[in-house]
Amino acid sequence: MRDRLGEHEGPEKGELTGPNPVDRGKYGSKIHLITERTGLPLSVGISGANVHDSQALIPLVQGIPPIRSRRGRRRRRPGKLHGDKGYDYNHLRRWLRDRRITPRIARKGTDSSQRLGRHRWTIERTMAWLAGCRRLHRRYERKAVHFLAFTSIACTLICYRRLAK
């Protein structure tokens, strides 16, 4: 369809989108997040809705900035990483152990979700804080860089509100 200036509409989908398996195949994006123990975001990333969660773990862990501790040098990596059953792959466990990060990932078929729930609620709460940002509730930007920038701004606001208390 052309508008009155002779320009036409752009493509319906943008970068880093994919057919959502639970929403009738509509194109969408996922927000991947690593937080610290109290729910402050440390690393954020986006991917298409059809990308498996396990593929986002390595870039997220690599994106964690150095953390200042009360004594000693800055920590370059977390001590432990809690994850749900979507991250239960031997190559991910091996990759984390090679970097001296203890993987605390629920095993498929053996571990119940009840044990992980006490650690998972912090991620769910942070995702709820992100969902409160209207701009992130639905993706309006076609460029993935813009959507990631708005997600980073929302994470910055979460950190500011939390630390200002």
Structure report:
With 165 residues, the chain is α+β, with helices and mostly antiparallel strands. The protein has five helices and five strands; from the N terminus they run E-E-E-H-E-H-E-H-H-H. It has helices spanning 57-62, 90-98, 113-131, 134-137, 144-164; strands at 18-19, 27-35, 41-48, 80-83, 102-105. The protein has a three-stranded antiparallel β-sheet. A two-stranded parallel ribbon has the order 4-5.
Please describe the topology of this protein.
Blueprint: E1 18-19, E2 27-35, E3 41-48, H1 57-62, E4 80-83, H2 90-98, E5 102-105, H3 113-131, H4 134-137, H5 144-164
Parallel strand pairs: 4-5
Antiparallel strand pairs: 1-2, 2-3
Sum up the structure in keywords.
single chain; 3-stranded antiparallel β-sheet; 36% helix; alpha+beta; 165 residues; 16% strand; 5 strands; 5 helices; two-stranded parallel sheet
Give a brief rundown of this model.
This protein has five helices and five strands.
Number of helices: 5
Main beta-sheet annotation? 3 strands, antiparallel
Strand content: 15-25%
* Radius of gyration, whole Å: 18 Å
Element-level helix/strand string: EEEHEHEHHH
Using DSSP, what is the number of strands?
5
- What would the average pLDDT be, to the nearest integer? 82
Structural class: alpha+beta
Global outline: globular
The low-confidence runs, each spanning 5 or more residues with pLDDT under 50, are none
For the terminal residues, how far apart are their CA atoms?
50 Å
Helix content: 25-40%
Strand order across the largest sheet? 1-2-3
